[in-house]
């Protein structure tokens, strides 16, 4: 029986590319929203979910960290996908013909230099793959799409200009979600642990909570805060650390964190991706 992996977007989206690269034996399942992708895994329509969380240029993907804690799913892997942006057009289209490019609001700033140099105006699309589909269904060579080469293949478009992103190391990080956690694996490049927490309402609680990681030599690679439930006093933190909950140093750090918090939830334990340790 073929297993499926859900992603947000239409066929040809960068999430689709991530699925093909990271889980080539799974059938990609396109979903309109991140909520739909998560629900597909929760209901059993898919075994895994490919969820974009941050881009090296744009920053974190909005609202995703609000969805993860309530998803009921667990992070089981991370994937770093090199984002190559291409200008796609109808077959036979030349660069000089393109006057407008369709693309998602996140991708437009990532190739702003190229578009400006070539006098190409932009128009926001709900999805990069949808932009490619819309161009393919039209008959106007002056309109192009900013999308992946996978989208070009799917919708029968030409790559008018290849790899037009302004930053050569433009990368998006995805988390792979599953219904069940897996704490037994150990990765070649180390392990990552993700969790959320809320600190107690006492002076310097966050400072003191973080002290345990420093004194025990645990590297915290991410700490992000966001409001929950519209309450300015209910700040929640999403954190990622290097290490496994079974490591003694992590156990000691988490024990100290627990003392200064009123809520901790483990989101996932997973191997660090090889590309995490790459340097420019």
How does this structure look, described?
By secondary structure, the protein is α/β, with parallel strands linked by helices. It has three domains: 4-82 and 171-178, Periplasmic binding protein-like II (D-Maltodextrin-Binding Protein, domain 2, 3-Layer(aba) Sandwich); 86-161, D-Maltodextrin-Binding Protein, domain 2 (3-Layer(aba) Sandwich); 191-277, ACT domain (Alpha-Beta Plaits, 2-Layer Sandwich), CATH 3.30.70. Helix content is 26%, strand content 35%. The protein contains eight helices and 15 strands. The protein has helices at residues 14-22, 34-43, 64-70, 112-117, 128-137, 149-155, 205-215, 248-259; strands at 4-8, 27-31, 48-55, 59-60, 74-82, 86-89, 100-103, 121-124, 143-147, 158-161, 171-178, 191-199, 220-228, 231-242, 261-271. Strands 1, 2, 3, 4, 5 and 11 form a six-stranded mixed beta sheet that branches. A hairpin with a 2-residue loop joins strand 13 (220-228) and strand 14 (231-242). Helix 7 (205-215) packs antiparallel against helix 8. The longest helix is centred in the last third of the chain and has 12 residues, at 248-259. The two termini are 41 Å apart. The mean pLDDT is 91. Pathway: Amino-acid biosynthesis; L-phenylalanine biosynthesis; phenylpyruvate from prephenate: step 1/1. The record marks 172 as: Essential for prephenate dehydratase activity.
């Amino acid at each position: 029986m073929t297993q499926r992996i859900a992603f947000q977007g239409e066929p040809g989206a960068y999430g689709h590319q991530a699925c093909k690269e990271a889980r080539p034996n799974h059938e990609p399942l396109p979903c309109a929203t991140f909520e739909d992708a998560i629900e597909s895994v929760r209901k059993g329509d898919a075994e895994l979910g490919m969820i974009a969380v941050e881009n090296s240029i744009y920053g974190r993907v909005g609202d995703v960290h609000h969805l993860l804690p309530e998803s009921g799913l667990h992070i089981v892997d991370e994937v770093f996908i090199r984002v190559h942006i291409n200008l796609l057009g109808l077959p036979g289209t030349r660069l000089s013909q393109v006057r407008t490019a369709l693309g998602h609001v996140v991708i437009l700033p990532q190739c702003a230099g190229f578009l400006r140099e070539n006098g190409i105006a932009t128009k926001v699309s709900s999805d990069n793959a949808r932009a490619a589909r819309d161009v393919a269904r039209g008959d106007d060579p002056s309109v192009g799409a900013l999308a992946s080469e996978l989208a070009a293949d799917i919708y029968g478009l030409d790559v008018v200009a290849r790899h037009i992103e302004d930053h050569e190391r433009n990368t998006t990080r995805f988390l792979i979600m599953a219904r069940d956690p897996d704490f037994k694996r150990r990765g070649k490049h180390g392990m990552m642990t993700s969790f959320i927490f809320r600190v107690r309402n006492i002076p310097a609680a966050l400072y003191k909570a973080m002290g345990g990681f420093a004194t025990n030599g645990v590297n915290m690679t991410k700490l992000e805060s966001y409001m929950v439930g519209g309450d300015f006093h209910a700040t929640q933190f999403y954190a990622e650390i290097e290490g496994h909950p079974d490591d003694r140093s992590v156990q000691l750090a988490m024990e100290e964190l627990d003392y200064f918090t009123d809520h901790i939830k483990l989101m996932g334990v997973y191997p660090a991706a090889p590309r995490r340790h790459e340097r420019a």
